[in-house]
Design brief:
The protein is of the alpha+beta class. The protein has 2 domains: about 10-40; about 40-85 and about 95-135, Immunoglobulin-like, CATH 2.60.40.790. It has one helix at about 10-35; strands at about 40-45, 50-55, 65-70, 75-80, 100-105, 120, 125-130. β6 (about 120) and β7 form a beta hairpin.
């Protein structure tokens, strides 16, 4: 006994749309990776009791090539990775590491004192410690029993 399956043109169009999204998405995101737009700077932002700590993975970047600025409630990290030149005799078979300029701007969730910020760079990881402004620190209230 055979069964009939109802044809649903909307489902067909949706699967075609998904296929086109994957096709164009992959094509354009691959070019953006090289300049750090889509898959660029990976960042962790952690709020401690007194500080906002931002960690960024910057492999291959020299500390002197990193520029950090805080404007209002926006933190901006900029830098550049220099391209290594292959010798004239060398044949390059694969090149996936990114090079060129990168930039990432993040909204800060709390007010910070940018003048007291500290930046450390070790093993390709930038650790930026931004002290929170006094008025934004969490206040604890002790409850006394009578």
């Amino acid at each position: 006994m055979s069964s009939m399956i109802r044809w649903e043109p909307v489902r067909e169009l949706m699967s075609m749309r998904d296929a086109m999204d994957r096709f164009f998405g992959d094509a354009f995101l691959r070019t953006a990776e090289g300049v750090g737009l889509e898959d660029g700077l990976r960042v962790d932002m952690i709020q401690t009791e007194n500080d906002l700590v931002v960690k960024a993975s910057l492999p291959g970047v020299k500390p002197e090539d990193i520029r950090i600025s805080v404007t209002g409630d926006v933190l901006t990290l900029k830098g550049e990775v220099q391209e290594e030149k292959a010798s004239d005799e060398a044949a390059v078979h694969l090149r996936e590491r990114r090079c060129g300029a990168f930039s990432r701007s993040l909204s800060l969730p709390v007010d910070v004192v940018a003048e007291k910020a500290k930046a450390d760079f070790e093993n390709g990881v930038l650790t930026l410690t931004l002290p929170m402004a006094e008025g934004r620190k969490p206040k604890t209230i002790t409850v006394r029993a009578r």
